[in-house]
Amino acid sequence: MYEEINERVTVVAVFKNGHALPYLFNWRGRKYRVEEVNLEHEERRGDELLFCYSISAGGNAYELSFNNRHLVWTLERVWQ
Amino acid sequence: MTRTILHIDMNSYFATVEQQANPLLRGKPIAVSGRPNIQSVVATASYEAKKYGVKSGMNTWEAKKLCPFLIFIPGDPNKYIDITGRLIKIFKSYTPLVEIFSIDEVFLDLSHASSRAQEIALEIKVRIRREIGDKMTCSIGVASNKFLAKLASEKKKPDGLTIVTPETLDEILLSSKLDDFCGIGRRILARLSGMGIYTVAQLRKVPREFLVAAFGNVCGNHLHDMAFGFDDSPVVPDFEADEQKSFGHSLTLPTETDDRAYVEAVLLRLAEKVARRLRAENFAGRLVHLYIRFPNLGGVGEQKALGYYVDDGYEIFGIGREILNKSLPSTDYRLLTKIRMLSIGVGSLVKKDLLTSSLLPEKQRAEKIVSSMDLVNNHFGENTIFRAAVLPAFEREKNVAGIRIKLRFQ
Asked: Do the chains contact at A54 and B22, CB–CB below 8 Å?
């Protein structure tokens, strides 16, 4: 089932060669290990740039976004 | 130098992107559309859904009837546009002559590397999988012109590669249906059928002069050329494309409607989008055109030339509404005919720097409001601030295929 979440989450990410990759995230008190980054895309909202990651974790699919201006990670949506 | 053109068609593009993003959707019949469980239109169907007869443009209820297990995914245009940008970067690493035909189709002119065309086509497929995602596939046609390259790319889906050589030309052309040809739509097909022409072989036998007499100079010659696989149209890269001649937006409504208030709200929404693009590109125009399509696919369109230039959505809407009232009789609440699609555009453009500012205080005030709204939307994102009259359109637009709007600060 698809659900829009739009909640800030804590993320452990690897930053390498100008590229960020989420590794772990904590949502509603539970830790999720990123098993696979399936797709990456960038999205502009106003004058802010978001780096979006469609990922697999624990048998579900999630979309995380990273706002590089405010250094904020958001869980955008989930498929369970 | 031998002309060598590649046509690349991303297979079931929006649906494949969603299946790439979400492994839970892979191997399943999915349709990219509006919000789930609400009537909308299918923008793209996955190959698994196509097996059940689900097609682009179909109503969601019709699609669900054909495929009861169909999964509807809300479209995410920003994602598709970004992925297309990354695909184009891959294509441009082989040639600067890349014509963007649509969000999921391009032509590449590889005449400088004809002998390597097949190798490049295969390499492009590998790079798309490696750099975008391993589920992303495309069908590629390689030929001596755009028409044949496009026809060839349609021959094998998904993940096809079809090369048209002088030896295979006739086989490819004669095995095609007339409506496989890019440019032969429903109307031309019906006219050809009315003349007893049902196959490419039959079209070949019709003298060029006869087709010109029946279809006019441009279309008649084009039909004759297509029957033999001729096409000398160039690949037009974006840096050579003609300057923008008009700006327009259209919307296929989720359901046919005669609700006048809703139609006007949609018209205002479209006019605002047109105006926003005009202002972003520093243009104003003085020709407003409106087109309305009815459920039976017939339609009416009219345009109005103004004595002044406009770039304000509300002004464009006002002119559009005038045309609407003239073209389509209505009561205060109902149009006398239901409509299915609405489009509005502005042409006869001029760069705004060449225009003098209005001295009328009310006009100056309106300009200030619009430019302040632009500043807010540029900073915080599209539709952060908008005219309240657009709200009814937004409410239903959230359900329309391919469009997802975040109403912020609700």
From this structure: yes
CATH code where residue B27 lies: 3.30.70.270
Which mean pLDDT values do the consecutive 10-residue runs of chain A (80 residues) have? 91 92 96 97 90 96 94 94
For the whole model, what pTM was predicted? 0.81
Q: At B406, list the tokens.
A: 């975040």
The verdict on B202 and B321 lying in the same domain is no
> In terms of domains, do B159 and B15 share one?
yes
B113-118 contacts: CB < 8 A, separation 24 or more?
B113/B4, B114/B1, B114/B2, B114/B4, B117/B4, B117/B6, B117/B142, B117/B163, B118/B142, B118/B161, B118/B163
Q: Which of B22, B72, B84 to mutate to test the interface with A (most CBs of A within 10 A)?
A: B22
Q: Quick one: pLDDT at residue B38?
A: 60
DSSP, res A25? E
Residue B274 sits in the same domain as residue B133: no
Asked if residue B190 and residue B151 are part of one domain, the reply reads no
Cβ B79–A45 below 8 Å, yes or no? no
Query: B296 with B152, same domain?
Result: no
Q: Which domain CATH number covers B357?
A: 3.30.1490.100
Q: Is B171 a catalytic residue?
A: no
Residue owning tokens 């389509």? B328
CB atoms within 10 A of CB B57: 12
Q: What residue in B sits closest to A45 (Cα-Cα)?
A: B381
B residues 118-147 lying closer than 8 A (beta carbon) to A: 132-133
Q: Which residues pair with A64 in a beta bridge?
A: A53, A75
On whether both B131 and B78 belong to a single domain, the answer is: yes
What's the pLDDT at B400? 41
Q: Which of B62, B105, B302, B367 is catalytic?
A: B105
Q: Are residues B201 and B213 in the same domain?
A: yes
Nearest residue in chain A measured CA to CA from B79: A41
B74 and chain A in contact, CB less than 8 A? yes
The total number of structural domains in chain B stands at 3
Same domain for B282 and B387?
yes
H or E element: which one contains B343? strand B334-351
B106/B94 Cα distance (integer angstroms): 13
Domain hosting B343: range is: 244-404
Residue B242: burial class (beta carbons within 10 Å; 0-12, 13-18, 19+): exposed
> What is the ipTM, given to two decimal places?
0.96
Cβ pairs A/B, distance under 8 A: 53
Query: Which residue type is seen at B224?
Result: H
